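Late entry, evening session. Most of the bench is empty. Finally got around to the prediction I had been postponing all week. Sequence below, unchanged from the version circulated by S.P.
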Amino acid sequence: MIQGIGHVALNVKDLKKTIAFYENSLGFKKAFELGRGEDEEPWIVYLYGGGGQFIELFHGATKEIPYSNDNIGFFHMCVAVDVIQEAWKRVVETGAPQDDAPKFAGDNNWQCWTHDPDGIKIELMQLSEESPQMKFIKSLEE
């Protein structure tokens, strides 16, 4: 059912400085970015860490961000799953918090949300073949 940690999400103040740190100091590779709004303003940047794992950087933590607690730093953890409906069924059957039911998101992946007993947000995500994450991973194999 679980495939591993899909990504850890961070709210950041300075997107350029943060990308430079993770790329230059730690060896992550910028994979892709997602814009939002009519002018596609910078919103999310994915950095690839190998093994199908990413760091997801949210630009402008003080702006309105879905699911955000408007902090700088840790935002949420994403667990990659095989089948989103089965993962959601387990959340429901075990009585875990049901923050957001499965839906198809803007990055072409299925996702749903819960949180742990300390309130840490957890995204469950089923990658699709058409998602930017999967396309990036496959481009490394070419």
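Two things to note before I forget:
Strands lie at 2-12, 29-36, 41-50, 53-59, 73-81, 100-104, 110-115, 121-126.
The chain has three helices and eight strands.
Will write this up properly tomorrow.
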